Amino acid sequence: MRKPLIFQWKKGFIKIKQDRGLSVEAENSKIFFSQREIDIKGLFMSYNEYFIGRKKDRKVIYVNFAFPLKGISSKKADELIMNNSDLSLGPFDIHYTKLEGVSEYITFYMPSGFLYEIVILTEDKMALFTIGRRQVYILDEKRGTRKLLLL
Known about the structure:
By secondary structure, this protein is mainly beta.
């Protein structure tokens, strides 16, 4: 496993690791991205699907969080907070954007073979971009985890 990337997030930080997929860890949630599914622990409230493009051949799936995504308040001394905007973690490309005084957001570009291409993570919402014919199913897992399956 590679060393995690750490980014500023509100008054704390957010940790991103690659291990058989991509894991995003915050104070009140953990999100895991794999080829066909996204596991969301803690924050999932609802989701909406919208077709985009002239031919409506693309789809954006908005996942609404029940509470804002909080940054982890404590940090280990050996971990460095990244401020670079464009980074790679294995096959994943990550773009971190901080709007001074407003908010932060992270854009993930998924590798080929994933059923979604781009994920944008903000404080209160996540957007997934995929092809229009992709179907989304929700599974309730144990301990407050929801699984979004894309088929």
